[in-house]
Amino acid sequence: MILSPLLLSLIPAIFPQEPLKVYILAGQSNMEGHAHVRVLDYMGEDPATAPLLAEMKNSDGNHRLIPGTWISFLTGVSGRIDGENREVHSQLTAGYGSQVQRNYSKPGERIGPELAFGVTMQKGLNQPILIIKTAWGGQSLHTDFRSPSSGPYAPTEDDIKNQRFETKEQKETLVSKTGARYHQMVNHVRFVLQDIQRVYPDFNPKRGFELAGFVWFQGFNDMVGRNVYPLVPSDHPTPRFANYTKWFANFVRDVRKDLAAPSLPFVMCVMGVGGTDADAGNQAFRFSQAAISEIPEFRGNVLVVPTAPYWDEALAKLDRKRVDIRQKQYLLRTKNSNHENADGSMTPEDIQKFLTEFEKELFTAEDYALEKRGKSNAGYHYLGSAKTYSLIGVAAAEALLKN
Predict the structure, then answer these.
(1) Within 10 Å of residue 104's Cβ, how many Cβ atoms?
(2) Other CB atoms closer than 10 Å to residue 69's CB: what's the count?
(3) What is the pLDDT of residue 9?
């Protein structure tokens, strides 16, 4: 249902006077969200997601303010992985995804799971909610989000072999990085909660608040971290990513302790890049992420949401064509013996002309149109699909609502 301006103005008066529900969203680049707002309308082509789009945009194309829903988002300035952080906050709307190349004088241009999460939570609860989101691209659980109970990062055999942490400067950098994002996350949550009216002006302190859920969407850097998670034979007794499960268990315990919320429900959004047919390494990582819910103390209070079902295969097919073009370009420029420029006779102009013709063979007009409507980033960012990020946000919210 789309609410009229009159009803929106009455929201504060008709909400039940219960403690404010607060939800924490945290992770790396996919929690940041790399879907450009220009691909939101692609959701309208699917009857399953068209109603969700109508909750996000008015018929005139303007982005809606989600009623009774507020957000504080802490991330790197201009999307930087390191360096200074910056908070953006207001009533929830589009633009609270990645802040990369952000012009802060204008609304943001990217979304992640937070928008659909807020819409779904609001519809399910019909009362004010506050989202506190902290996310930075390219961050790992093994180092950056490492929580206190996991102790210091111990250099692996591969680290030692490649002398990654030999010098005093390297050791100091490792110490400063280890757990840095964990502490920034916890400190920001505390900072927001000590003055909620700064973010949500109509908050009544007499009502208090409740930490009602924590959504974790992270994993790519750990999944590809062979130095930390070395390859093992398929019949190895210990799963390759077993330490991820152990470290995330510590993370859950530490968050609950540090935020004085011993019963805080968690949602683990399991990495789904590549869809349901992803390679063995990807599947092994997913197994170890999902294994968290099988630990006896976490059964029923750490929930698992697979994200692979929301991978958009139609967009992925186009992305694979882009990969083929880049690979062809590399092979031509390096004079690969099995390709068209094996003798090195092609000039840069020849190569560019060849690639132009090669692309014409791969892409149809329909392909270009679909790519423009639905895709705005790379595969490791779920193709920058607003539809995919939104479905993930809905799934995470529904898991908490059903809990």
Answers:
(1) 11
(2) 26
(3) 46
Task: Give dist(CA 18, CA 276) in Å, integer.
Answer: 41
Q: Which two tokens stand for residue 232?
A: 């093992």
Q: Cβ atoms within 10 A of the Cβ of 111, count? A: 29
Containing H/E element for 266? strand 266-270
Residue 373 one-letter amino acid: R
Position 203 scores a pLDDT of 97
* Three-state secondary structure call for residue 279: coil
321 CA to centre of own chain: 24
Query: What distance in Å separates the CA atoms of residue 354 and residue 312, rounded to the nearest whole number?
Result: 30
- What is the C-alpha separation between 165 and 64, in angstroms, rounded? 49
Q: Which is it for the CA torsion 388, 391, 392, 393, positive or negative?
A: positive
* Listed residue (187, 194, 178, 87) closest to 140, CA to CA: 178
Which residues is 35 bridged to in the sheet? Answer: 111
What are the residue ranges in the chain where pLDDT is below 50? 1-13, 15
CA–CA dist 215, 400 (Å, integer): 9
Rounded CA-CA distance 168/7 in Å is 62
Question: Strands, E, within 52-145: which ranges?
Answer: 69-76, 85-91, 110-111, 129-135
d(CA 188, CA 250): 20
Pairing of strands 85-91, 209-217: unpaired
With 0.90 as the threshold, say if the pTM is over it.
yes
